[in-house]
Structure formats: C-alpha cells, structure tokens
Design a protein that fits this description.
With 699 residues, this protein is an alpha/beta fold. It has 23 helices and 15 strands. It has helices at residues 3-17, 71-86, 90-105, 116-124, 135-149, 156-185, 192-214, 240-257, 263-300, 304-312, 318-340, 346-367, 369-390, 397-415, 423-446, 450-474, 481-487, 491-517, 525-555, 562-570, 586-603, 683-686, 693-696; strands at 36-42, 48-54, 57-63, 66-67, 110-111, 114-115, 219-220, 233-234, 574-580, 609-616, 619-627, 633-642, 655-660, 665-670, 676-681. Strand 9 (574-580), helix 21 and strand 10 (609-616) form a beta-alpha-beta unit.
Length: 699
C-alpha cells in the first residue's frame, strides 16, 4: 500500500472514530418535523455531554458524541447535570441561612434597657433562674418575682399566666430556629425537596411565635397603650422582613430544584427511550430491505384484504372463511411487524402471505355470488311490490288482503337475511324472492278489472287520437308540455264527433237506400212509421253510445297505469323531472333532488336525456342537457327563473313530477292529456335507500 493511501486510511479511521453524533436516525417516522433541543454541559470527568429533548421530553444522552445506553452511567451523568443546573449554590444557601440568623438575632434587639429577650428572661421573669413550663411551676417563678421585686399588690396567679405564655413563646422561637437548622443541615440532592419544606415551615413557626411574644402582657409598651400590661420586660422588635425574605428565597429554591423530584423518572425515561430508539434505528435499516418486498406484494394483491373483510361480513362458508382468516391474519402480522420493526422470520412470513393471497384470490370473486343474487332477487321483488302497491283497489277488501299478504311474505324473507350466512341459505332466498316477484306480477295483472279494461280501451283511443293530433300540429309548430296540457283535452271529443258524423251519414244513406230499393214494401203508412222509428232509434243509440264512450275517454286518465306511463317513457328519447318543494323543508328538497338524480341514473343506460326543473316558491332552476364538444353532454343551468314561466320551454315528453307532501300518497299516472307521473311524498319517502321508489321501479 502506498504512503498516500495509508495516510488516507488513517485519516478516514480518525474521522469515523470522532464522527459527530446525529439524532436524525433515532427520530420516529412521526417525529421527522419534531422540535429537537439540546442541553450541553461538562461532566465531572471533563467529557462533553449533550442531553437531547425531543418534543420537549428528555430522550437521549450523548457523551463525547457517543450515545449512552447504560442505565448506571445515565444516572451518574444526569445526577451531575442536575447538581450543576438545579442544586442551590453556596451563595443561595448562605443567603437563606442569613435570613434565619438575622431574625433570630432580632430577638435580642438592643433596647435602652438592654437586649430585649435577655433582659426579660433574666431580669423581668427570672426564668433564667426559675424556668417553668406549666402553670403550677410558673406560680413558683411568679412568687420569686414578687418576692425579689417587693412590688405591692403583686398577683402571683395573674403573673404566673403571663410568665407561662412568654416562656412558651420563647420555647417556640427556639424550636422554630432549631427546625430551620435541622432542614438546613440535612440538605442534599436526595433530600432537597423535604429540607426546603422544613425550612419553609420553620419560617412560618418563627412568625407565629414572634406574634405571641410581641403581644406578651409582661412588656412595657413603647408606642400605643396597653392597659393590662405590667411593664416588667422591654418590648420586642422582631425582624419580620427577614422572615418574608426567607420564605421568598425558599419558594425560589423550590422552583429551581423541582426537577430533582423527577430525576429518577427522567433517568428511567432516557434509558427506555434510548433502548427503544436504538431498536427503531436498527429496524429502520432492516425496513429499508424488507418493506419494499411487502409493498410489492401489497400492490399485487391490492384491495384483497378489504374484499375479504367485506365478504366475511356477508357469507360464512367454512372453506372461504378459513382462507380469508388465514390471509387477514398474515396481513395483520406483517403490518404489525413492520410497525414494530421486528423482522425475525420476515421472509418466511412474506412467502406465507403470498401463498395465502393466491389461494384467496381464486375464490374471493365467487364467494359472494349467492349473496349478490339474493340481493338482486330482493330488489326485483321490491320493484314488483311497489307497482303492486300502486295498483291496490282501495275499495276491494280482497285486493287489500292479497297485497298485504305479499308484503308480509316479503317482510318474513327480509327477516331471514342475517349476514353472514352460508351460500345455500342465500340460494334458497333467491328462489323465494323469485316466487314472490312472480306472484306480485300476477297481482298487478289481475288488478285490471273489466272496468279497467274498458277504460284501457278508452285510454288507448284517447292517447292515439291526441298523439296523432299533436304529431300533425308539431309538423307546423313546436308543441310544448304546456301546449299539450292546454289543448289536448279537446282532441278526443272532436275525434269522437267526427266519427259520430261519419257513422250518422253512413246510417242515413243506408236507411234512404233501403227505403228507395224496397219502396214497394213501404207503401203502407204503418211500414213507413216503423222505418222512421227505426231510424230515430238508431240515431238515439248512436247518441247514447257516443256520450257514454266520450265519458269513458274523458275519465281514462284516472285509470292510466304505471305500465302505460313507462310505455311512453320507453318510446321517448327524452324525459323531464320536475321537483316542487312546496311546503317541504330544505332537507326534504335536497332529498327530492337526490331522487331526481337517481331517476336520471336509472334512465342513463337506455340513453335517455333528462331535463330537470327545481321549483322553490316563485323561483325555478332549469338544468338542460346539451351536446358539447366531442359528443359529450354538458348541462346548461339557468337559475332564478319565474316559476310560472319555467315550464314554457318544456317539450312534449314524459314527465316525472316529484311533489312534497307531509303524508305520502299513491302516485297517479296520465298518458292522454299529458304523459305524467305525479309522486307526492315526505322527506322519508324520497330518502329511501338504496334509492327512492320512483327510481327503484325503473329498469
């Protein structure tokens, strides 16, 4: 190896040995934009240390650019850091001690009589010579005071009470000062919180005791008056300001040292975080190898898991369920392992996942075939029952009972659909729904009574005559929906009148011809009278028949059926849907417009163009399909049209008229004067799932 190569190798090794630590590989995928803060400090060994905070939480400890994972080392270095950053300094502690000492010194404030507490303790109460701590012992002390001072009227029992109060106050001052020093002398990292609490309580005790001593009846008041003070002791001058400052200092040190209470939890958190993030980093390196393999398989079998979950919720065939469960379980296991970055045996799991996916793919498409057929059969039965409902003769109990029995059968079949179920049960339902559809169709056919048949003939004649007249008129000028609505009702009677005139003319010619040909037979007056009466009878029957059939034609609109209306829809290239809000709410109006959209969707496969008109109060919006570029359909929308003029341009085409009604009513159909289906229903009626009745019956 050449000298240059050797030197380069040495430099490379040196660079690697002192490579700067990077926290990025240790950030979880959700933390790539996380806030990362560092706290740098010097360890006692002189090493450079950094504490990493991720999203404000202590997470990693690095010393000399090396991640520390040993818990004992973490604890030692964090303890050093806490001592340097959060433990009170010598100046802090000296200042705190000074406040306690200053207050304690103020107990012997130098009065003109001498130190306040010393003078009272030795010369005012003689407690220095005769201490007491109970009333009985303090009576003896009071007796000594009275004897030595020789004061007249010295009341020993009263004096004993005052001496006892003073003695107890001084004891409390001594105890408070002692308590402060017990906390101060026990200061340390592990006891800092408790020691500060003790010192804080000591300052409170000092104030309480000082207040009691300041109010002693033994004092000689320097200011103010005290009628029952006996004036044997100088008045106290306590340094309350030192107590206030001392408590403020304790409070500040409590805040500063608060982290010590959580130091053990912090060490534990850093240790756990380091362990988990180290595993995560190693897992990320493996994920870069294994994850693409899994993603490739997921792409190949995209959507299979969702299909399996959906199919399992519908069918319970044992073989399929076993195959689906196996695939779902393997898929979940792989997802969890990638999430946790656990890649032991991952290749074997991938192989099992692929095999399971292939096996499931072979059966998934047919797994729900029976279910789909059952739903289609149910939908077909529903369509037939809707038509049956529209054809119920409300005046016939037999008609009502038959319809109710059909509905009851459907409800029982619906109650048997309890997914997931085995395919044979769905197959049985297919057969039952098919039988129900057949019976419903038979009911619809049987509902056409003799009267209905007669009116059906009138309907056909009326519709044929009107359509013929409208066709002739449209060759001269466009015929609109409103034009047909206004003039079509006059066409049937005019056609019937023309037929009557033709029949009458033929009849007259026939009668005159017979009279002329057989004039020899009509020589008698009786024969002539009979022939004239026959002629008049023929004319009378013609008149009665015409009037009767005219009535049938005029009434034929009442007996138009859904089948009649659908026939006009099928023969027309365009259809209109009118949505009239009326008194309905905005949500009801939205449901009605959604129903109109469903009608359009149902007619789309047959290539029908659908014109829509939304009428709200006095305003109307028209949505008209137009031919766009490249033979595409675009919609021309015109809003804020006057409702009364909105339908002027509506051509003579079949119309679905959706009207709001609080109580749903049976629909009516017309095919003579207008080709119109009128539906009146509530918001619930138009919101039916999967689609509203007017759309559901269209095929």
């Amino acid at each position: 190896m050449g000298m240059k190569a050797l030197l380069a190798f040495i430099l490379l090794c040196s660079a690697l040995g002192f490579a700067e630590f990077s926290v990025t590989p240790y950030l979880y995928s959700a933390e790539k934009s996380a806030a990362v803060d560092t706290v740098s400090f010097q360890a006692s060994s002189g090493a450079s240390a950094r504490l990493y905070k991720i999203n404000g939480e202590d997470s990693l400890l690095v010393v000399d650019d090396k991640l520390v994972s040993d818990k004992a080392v973490i604890s030692s270095i964090i303890s050093e850091y806490y001592m340097a950053a959060f433990y009170p300094s010598n100046d802090d502690l000296s200042e705190l001690k000074g406040f306690a000492d200053s207050f304690n010194k103020s107990r012997n404030y130098m009065t003109r009589y001498g130190p306040a507490e010393k003078m009272c303790w030795e010369g005012g109460t003689f407690l220095a010579y005769k201490p007491c701590d109970t009333y009985q012992t303090c009576v003896q002390t009071a007796q000594l005071v009275c004897t030595i001072t020789g004061a007249e009227g010295c009341l020993m029992d009263v004096l004993a009470t005052y001496i006892l109060d003073y003695s107890q106050g001084v004891d409390k001052l001594n105890n408070a000062y002692t308590k402060f020093y017990s906390g101060y002398n026990n200061l340390g990292p592990a006891k800092i919180s408790g020691s500060l609490i003790i010192m804080d309580e000591a300052f409170d005790a000092m104030k309480v005791a000082a207040d009691a001593v300041s109010k002693s009846k033994l004092r000689f008041p320097e200011t103010g008056s005290c009628m029952d003070c006996i004036g044997v002791c100088p008045e106290a001058h306590f340094d309350y300001n030192s107590i206030t400052q001392g408590k403020a200092k304790v409070s500040a040190l409590k805040s500063k040292t608060a982290p010590f209470a959580l130091m053990e939890q912090t060490v534990e958190r850093i240790y756990i975080s380091t362990d988990e993030r180290t595993k995560y980093r190693l897992g990320e390196e493996k994920a870069a190898i294994f994850a693409p393999k899994y993603e490739s398989l997921k792409t190949r079998f995209g959507g299979l898991k969702a299909q399996a979950v959906e199919a399992k919720s519908l069918v319970s065939d044992s073989n399929f369920v076993l195959s689906a469960d196996s695939f779902i379980s393997k898929s979940d296991t792989l997802e969890q392992k990638i999430e946790r970055r656990e890649f032991d045996g991952f290749d074997a799991l991938l192989s099992g996942y692929e095999s399971s996916a292939r096996a499931l793919s072979a059966v998934i498409n047919n797994s729900t075939a029976s279910y789909r057929k059952a739903m289609e059969a149910q939908d077909s039965a529903v369509d037939q029952l809707i038509q049956a409902q529209w054809g119920v003769n409300r005046l016939s109990k037999a008609s009502i009972d038959t319809y109710n029995s059909l509905v009851e059968r459907k409800n029982k079949l619906d109650a048997n659909i309890k997914p997931p179920m085995p395919s044979p049960q769905y197959d049985s339902l297919v057969s039952d729904y098919a039988k129900l559809s057949t019976d419903a169709k038979a009911y619809v056919s049987a509902s056409a009574s003799l009267e209905g048949s007669v009116f059906g003939i009138g309907n056909a004649i009326g519709r044929t005559s009107v359509d013929g007249a409208m066709t002739m008129a449209s060759s001269m000028a466009p015929i609109s929906f409103k034009t047909r609505q206004s003039y079509a009702k006059y066409v049937p009677p005019l056609v019937l009148a023309a037929i009557d005139m033709a029949v009458l003319a033929i009849g007259l010619l026939l009668f005159v011809g017979i009279f002329y040909y057989f004039h020899g037979f009509f020589k008698s007056r009786l024969a002539i009278s009979g022939w004239v009466l026959s002629l008049l009878g023929f004319m009378f029957l013609l008149l009665i028949g015409s009037v009767g059939f005219y009535s049938i034609v005029l009434s034929t609109e009442k007996f138009s059926t859904f089948t009649d209306f659908v026939g006009t829809v099928k023969s027309s290239g365009s259809v209109a849907v009118i949505v009239e809000q009326g008194s309905g709410s905005s949500s009801a109006f939205e449901a009605m417009k959604a129903c109109a959209g469903q009608i359009e969707s149902q007619l789309a496969p047959s290539g029908k163009k659908v014109l829509k008109y939304h009428i709200t109060g006095t305003k109307c919006t028209s949505i008209i399909p137009k031919l766009g570029a490249n033979n595409t359909t675009v919609y021309e929308t015109k809003a804020d049209l006057a409702a009364e003029n909105c339908l002027d341009s509506l051509p003579d085409i079949p119309v679905f008229d959706l009207q709001y009604s609080a109580a749903s009513q049976a629909p009516t159909f017309t095919t003579v004067v207008t080709k119109q289906a009128i539906f009146k229903g509530s918001e619930e009626y138009y919101s039916k799932k999967p689609m509203c009745d007017p759309a559901n019956v269209l095929e």
